[in-house]
Design a protein that fits this description.
Largest sheet: 6 strands, mixed
Helix content: 25-40%
Strand content: 5-15%
Distance between the termini: 89 Å
Number of helices: 13
Radius of gyration: 31 Å
Strand order of the largest sheet: 6-5-10-9-8-7
């Protein structure tokens, strides 16, 4: 087992760094990348350069942290209901010796959002033990070579090694396996589609605009205005300096703004305006933010753009609900399916027989409205018998009612099914 462990560390650890899983920051510093270089709009579009766009970084942050911090639980099915397992797997809190679940799942999501694929190395305990560690691999070191195999290339220059991909039939029969998570992909492809590669031209325009702006402010020598002197007035260098300093002394600074200027000897002041190209540059930057939000399915207001967010709903609540439904839910379905498969293999390896089980990520916390709205919905659900009083109290963090009073669904008494012997019209007598 120690030999396997050393191989894993050699795979994950770059020379001269501490022995832990390779983070995206460390990967970028080594020059590794998730995508091939694509030159669009005069700039190289890669995962590294795309992450320098604040809108891309914001989308990664919003989606990965929203999913990583969702309540999670191992559940089993009983009589059509999913109930929390009595004993939760330890890897739902500490998947490895250095990361929490939030950090591990956050890295996994960034990998999916950047390159379309994520690879978790599963280390099994010896002698029929369950999951020992889940370690996020740098996607640049992994290559899916077949339906059952992923080749991992160590960053220390060692030879590549093949690992078995976990499938629905896996039972932890090998000491190390790879859990491959995929985003949206082409039909028949073994790997997911990278948003960076698919939308390289859009990101290239945004990168070019950002670099143009940085260069403009770094190298711009355009003054706010010029003082024009008639040709017949031959000013020496000392005279030009004195005229410039005199103008700055009289009209420079916020305290002297809009003071009336008196010009003599034919001197004229000419203000310099922003050129149409420079004004269009600002619109290009704004449009780039909206394009990136569209790529990742993120409401613009969540990444700081409130100029055009009505397409997601009429209010912030509707926009957040649409974000959970249309953006987060597909990712949650993918993650739940893969980690549920891992949980079943974990139980099987430890010799635990059970019925249907799953790992659930609960997005309800993101859909909760204000207090009045939540209580009104709970009241209607309890009154109509959809949920019990104890279930409503649990959602709000309250203990069950004593003596099981809140465990029985209420039945509305104001309505009843119409029987055949009842009159069709009420009696007037």
């Amino acid at each position: 087992m120690s030999r396997v462990r050393n191989t894993i560390r050699a795979t994950l650890t770059p020379p001269g760094s501490d022995a832990r899983n390779l983070t995206f920051q460390a990967m970028f510093e080594q020059g590794l990348d998730l995508t091939m270089t694509r030159r669009k709009a005069g700039v190289n579009v890669t995962t590294t350069t795309a992450s320098q766009l604040s809108a891309v970084y914001a989308c990664w942050r919003i989606i990965s942290e929203a999913i990583g911090t969702m309540p999670r639980a191992a559940e089993y099915e009983m009589e059509g209901r999913w109930l929390p397992a009595d004993k939760q797997p330890s890897w739902l809190d500490t998947p490895n010796e250095t990361d929490t679940w939030v950090e591990m799942l956050g890295q996994t999501m960034v990998s999916l959002l950047a390159g379309g694929d994520a690879y978790n190395m599963i280390v099994w305990g010896g002698d029929g033990g369950g999951i020992k560690e889940i370690i996020v691999l740098a996607p640049s070191t992994c290559r899916r070579v077949s339906d059952t195999t992923v080749t991992v290339t160590p960053t220390d220059g060692g030879p590549p090694r093949d690992y078995r991909v976990m499938t629905s039939n896996s039972s932890g029969s090998r000491p190390v396996e790879i859990l491959h998570l995929r985003g949206m992909g082409q039909p028949g492809a073994r790997t997911g589609m990278s948003p960076i590669e698919a939308c390289a031209e859009t990101l290239g325009v945004a990168l070019a605009a950002q670099r143009y702006g940085a260069s403009f402010f770094a190298n711009d020598g355009t003054p706010g205005g010029v003082l024009e002197v008639p040709p017949e007035t031959d000013l020496s260098e000392t005279g030009r300096k004195a005229l410039r300093e005199s103008w700055s002394e009289l009209h420079g600074g916020p305290d002297r703004a809009k003071r009336i200027a008196v010009l003599t000897r034919g001197v004229k002041f000419k203000a310099l305006q922003v050129t149409p190209n420079e004004a269009q540059f600002l619109e290009t930057r704004k449009f780039g933010v909206q394009e990136i939000a569209r790529i990742y399915g993120t409401p613009p207001h969540l990444i700081g753009d409130t100029t055009n967010s009505t397409g997601w709903g009429t209010g912030m609540g509707e926009q957040n609900s649409a974000f959970v439904t249309h953006t987060l839910r597909p990712w949650l379905e993918r993650l739940e399916a893969r980690y549920s498969m891992l949980y079943r293999a974990d139980l099987q390896r430890r010799g635990i027989t059970t019925g249907p089980v799953r790992i659930a990520l609960h997005e309800e916390a993101l859909l909760r409205g204000d207090t009045r709205q939540r209580w009104e919905v709970a009241r209607k659900n309890v009154a109509s018998g959809i949920m019990t009083a104890d279930e409503a109290r649990k959602n709000e963090g309250y203990a069950p009612l004593p003596n099981g009073a809140g465990a029985v669904p209420w039945i509305p008494l104001s309505q009843a099914p119409k029987s055949d012997d009842q009159e069709s019209e009420p009696s007037n007598g």
